[in-house]
């Protein structure tokens, strides 16, 4: 059998080398230079800023350009044991161990297995893109990781191409503009009538839709993608055929049923990108016995970020507080600092969770959101003009729980 994985004494084990995992390492090392830390990641562990992925194509930045430090160099600087290209297959919370499988060579048969112990375990494993059955993973891209981003960028380097983006949330809308600025033809498809419709009210999203379309993006709102196939069978170079159909409200009446029997339309493109939401892989949370929801993430105690299982913490995209997913970069440093203090037994005031300001990275329109927005709510206009809209979301006590500010640059007409 192959050589054993590097051994580690009991200490802190972190699963996931994204921004969240590395922030925890930074926070711990700021307080303790010697405590053993093992970082386990399915990839190389390179440090990069994920939000840049939705802007990098038009800026002609390669995956290598986005890497701030390789995993090896970052681990050496932080005095961390890095287990790269390694999968965690099981967590035994009672024994406080994790089981690993590591592919150390290109030959998939050559693998290593190991069990390592921990005093404290941090789950920073992120979330994974949702691929509905109509979007086959082998034909559809996602831009949620630097490796896939790099592969897509190589394909797009051949020249101007037609890209369909499925899902007009924050990420999908940002990618659409980035690809357009890079010289590509873009079709943005969403179930709703306008981008960001799951977050904001119709009055706000109508302005966003107008701005997106003014850029030259073909926005198909109110459509559901029913399938993606390759036009040229047996050829990886064949274009893709996207089938989509309008979403028609149905009732029990016969007239409505007939109205809903619409014919599918098709669109031929070079690439399809899925931006259809995120889900948390349930294998490790289930093994560890922590409470979680696949859509929102692992439940934690807000002041400490402890999970419902002793000695296990969670942070980043895989975590939720009070049933709300925490998938923004801004709070990560404060979350990591709390975990570091709690793990090291240092006195701390507890993590005070405040929803960060959300900004849509789009040049055609400025969208800023504070609080916890939801489309279906009591939104009230506080200011409205041709170039600005401000709306507040009022809760049951008539207090403001979210605010959206939309400004249209003078060069863009809504």
TrEMBL record:
Domain FAD/NAD(P)-binding as annotated: residue spans: 12-328
Keywords recorded for this protein, A-Z: FAD, Flavoprotein
Coiled-coil regions listed: none
Family named by the database record: Belongs to the FAD-dependent oxidoreductase family.
Record-given protein name: FAD-dependent oxidoreductase
Cofactors demanded by this protein: FAD
């Amino acid at each position: 059998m192959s050589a054993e994985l590097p051994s580690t004494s009991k200490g802190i084990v972190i699963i996931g080398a994204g921004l969240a995992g590395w922030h925890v390492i930074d926070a711990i090392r700021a307080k303790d230079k010697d405590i053993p830390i093992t970082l386990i990641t399915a990839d190389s562990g390179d440090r990069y800023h994920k939000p840049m992925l939705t802007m990098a194509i038009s800026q002609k930045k390669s995956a290598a350009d986005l890497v701030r430090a390789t995993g090896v160099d970052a681990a050496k600087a932080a005095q961390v044991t890095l287990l790269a290209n390694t999968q965690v297959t099981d967590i035994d919370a009672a024994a406080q161990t994790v089981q690993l499988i590591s592919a150390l060579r290109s030959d998939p048969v050559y693998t290593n297995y190991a069990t390592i112990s921990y005093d404290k375990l941090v789950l920073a494993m992120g979330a994974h893109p949702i691929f509905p059955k109509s979007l086959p993973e082998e034909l559809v891209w996602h831009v949620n990781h630097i490796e896939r981003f790099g592969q897509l960028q190589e394909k797009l380097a051949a020249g101007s191409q037609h890209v369909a983006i499925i899902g007009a949330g924050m990420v999908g809308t940002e990618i659409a503009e980035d690809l357009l600025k890079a010289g590509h033809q873009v079709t943005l498809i969403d179930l709703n009538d306008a981008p960001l419709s799951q977050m904001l009210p119709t009055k706000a999203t109508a302005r966003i839709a107008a701005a997106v379309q003014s850029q030259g993006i073909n926005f198909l709102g109110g459509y559901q993608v029913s399938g993606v196939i390759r036009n040229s069978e047996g050829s990886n170079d064949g274009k893709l055929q996207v089938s989509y159909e309008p979403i028609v409200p149905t009732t029990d009446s016969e007239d409505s049923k007939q109205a809903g029997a619409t014919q599918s339309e098709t669109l031929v493109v070079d690439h399809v990108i899925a931006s259809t939401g995120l889900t948390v892989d349930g294998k490790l949370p289930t093994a560890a016995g922590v409470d979680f929801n696949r859509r929102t993430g692992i439940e934690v105690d807000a002041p400490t970020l402890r999970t419902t299982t002793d000695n296990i913490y969670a942070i980043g995209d895989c975590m939720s507080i009070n049933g709300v997913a925490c998938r923004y970069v801004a709070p990560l440093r404060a979350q990591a600092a709390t975990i570091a203090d709690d793990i090291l037994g240092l006195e701390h005031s507890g993590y005070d969770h405040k929803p960060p300001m959300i900004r849509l990275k789009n040049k055609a329109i400025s969208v800023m959101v504070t609080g916890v927005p939801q489309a279906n709510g009591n939104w009230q206009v506080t200011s409205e003009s041709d170039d600005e809209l401000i709306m507040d979301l009022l809760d049951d006590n008539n207090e403001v729980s979210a605010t959206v500010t939309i400004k249209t640059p003078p060069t863009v007409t809504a």
